Amino acid sequence: MTTTWADIQRLAADLQRVQLAEGTKKLSERNCVEVVSMLMASKAIDVVFTSDGHAYLTKKHLLTEIKNECIGRGGRVSLSDLAHTLNVDYEHIENSVAVILKQSSSFVLCNAELIARDYVDSLCMELNERLSETGVLSASQLIKTWDLPSEIFYGLVLTEIGSKVEAMIDGDTIYTSPYLSAQRNLLRAILNALTKVTPMAKLSAHLNLSPSIFWSIYDDLAANSEVPGTVAGGRSSNLAHYVPNRHGMLVRSFVLKCFEQEKMIATSTLRKLSIVHANVYLKDVLPKSEFASLIFFPSAIISKELWDEIEALIKNEMEKMCYCDLSLHMPAAISSDQDVQKAISICVKSSKEWMSASGQPFVYNSQLLASALKALNGLISDRAEKEAEVWSRQHKNAKREEKPQEEDWTTGKGKKGRGGKGKGNKQTHKEEQLFASARFSAEELVSELERVTNLPKELLEEIVEQICANAEAVLRARIETLVRTVQTVSAQDQKRSHVQMQEKIRALYNNICIFEQATSSFDDVVATDLRAYLIRTLCTDVANIVLSYISGTENTNALTIKIRDETISSIENAGGREAVAALFAAVSGADLDAFHSAMSSVSSPAVCSLNLKMPDKKQRTELVQAYASELERQLRACDDAASGLLISLLLILAKRNAIAVHASGKFVSHIIAKVEKVANLSAEQMELLVSMQKLVIASMKNKTDVDLKTKLVEKLKSLKSFLLGVDYVEESSKGGKQDGEDGVIIELTS
């Protein structure tokens, strides 16, 4: 049973009457809803409640409302908007739309939207209008302009292409046939007009065609023989290029002209001409002999003639400077680092004497290395002298350390021989170590070459690397020569020094012996004082000479006691250190026997290797005579009265009694008494000595008395005349000692 709208109206009127009725026959709104629900459940009526439940309508009326709403909105409405506008549940809208689609083809459902066919037709008409104006449109741009979901556009509008829309689509782009025909003609014109290689992608972009449409048009033109060229490269990549037929002729002419005028062609130019395999192309273009002489650089290809010109410049530079910076002689087209390195490799191969610097644009020859080595001669000489000097000091210290060991070997012949051999081997090993350690640092040689030469800084490190070994070999040879010379000179100097020291000490020691013997002729008290004076003077001089020789220290007599003790402690030879310490201990006392014992230790081969012996009777006589002669010489040269008196007294004892006395001015009174006893002088002579002594004492007390000085001069003349046996002739002093207090120290040779 179908419920009509009139039935519903009657039912509504009845319900209204019931509601307006008074008393017990009146129904509430809730009762009305329950009644309608019961009727719907019993299928007595077929209606649809609104979402709020306040109204209801039939399904047929709902279909009408949906169609009206879609048409009222221009032919397109979403199902959700229908549910909201009609105040009906979404489920009822979906069911009703499904009924509409079954009943009529004037509507379609797409993307949850109800769309009228008239709406789609209007879009197709508008699309045709736009295409007629532009010839090409973008689908994505249309979607934005029309505010359409892509599903609707692609599902409803584009499906009409070929029927309602006079066009074709490729990808995202829609073309009209007239547009494609015009682009075909344009492409044909472009291909015929091109004279150089052109990327196909550039042509496609210029024509505003998709790749598939573009290649379709190109293939059509090619099939009709309307393309005066070929395509190089794959179509699926951007490497596809159009190569016009006339391009080959132009390129060939250009390449030949380049080699004729410039004798070269840049590889970048070949790439621009779409020549990928240059060697293959040039082999076809150039004569066989010319192609065979080409030189391929990374940046260009040059002819043999051009390279000969470059090589001539390089050789000329090499003859002048022994080195050449190739980057200064390369053409601009082949001036990159890779080009220069290629040129260097060619030069080095062509001349065996030429060498290259790693990573630098230079070539050089062996003459440059020889010149650089010669320039280092000053540095090598200075360094060799320093190394030899260091070796000399070390050698001297080593010899001092070895002296006790040599002394130990003297106990047996077999051991001595073996010890000497070992020492020689050890010394040779030390010299070898010195020579091997003589090296130059690279920085040192670079700095020196930079100072004394004008070589490029970039080339210095390479040169140093080449000549460093030779420089060190020259250094070691020069050190060895200096060391050998030093050894020879050192041995000679050492021997000479030892001989001089030995002679000096022997002379002093002989004097000490005769002076010591003379002290026994005096009284005990005076003898003790004379021996103490002898130790304090001549014996101390001997000790200082020994210390100077062993320690290598000069002016040892001027050293303080503290410094002298430190110097003795620094002697590395233990035996020598002990012997020298004992010698200075002896001269610090008053015992000459201790001095003689210490001198015996010092004289051993382990210390100074002195050959000291007590002088015999004959030698003593000769020593006293020599002493007397020396006193006569000093007396002749003496101008000081006090010194002249002392010398005269010593001369009297030496000549008349053969006694050699070593004394100072404070012993004058004792010596006068001794002379009076043993010299057998006349009373007048003794009076001269005594009176002169008194005048000397008076002169010391009153140094400004001129009369005393005059009398002393006269007395000295008389004394000289008496002792020398001739009238005194005044002579200028020749360096005689004039200190009456300290007396005269006389050294005699044996």
From TrEMBL:
E3 UFM1-protein ligase that mediates ufmylation of target proteins. The keyword Transferase applies. Keywords: Transferase, Ubl conjugation pathway. One of its GO terms (molecular function) is UFM1 ligase activity. The keyword Metal-binding does not apply. Belongs to the UFL1 family. Pfam families: E3_UFM1_ligase, UFL1, UFL1_C, WHD_UFL1_5th. This is E3 UFM1-protein ligase 1 homolog. It comes from the Eukaryota. InterPro entries: Ufl1 (IPR018611), Ufl1-like_C (IPR056761), Ufl1_dom (IPR056580), Ufl1_N (IPR056579). It comes from Parascaris univalens (Nematode worm). Residues 390-429 are annotated as: Disordered. One of its GO terms (cellular component) is endoplasmic reticulum membrane. One of its GO terms (biological process) is protein K69-linked ufmylation. Residues 623-709 form the E3 UFM1-protein ligase-like C-terminal domain. Residues 498-614 form the E3 UFM1-protein ligase 1-like domain. Residues 413-427 have a biased composition (Basic residues). Residues 7-281 form the E3 UFM1-protein ligase 1-like N-terminal domain.
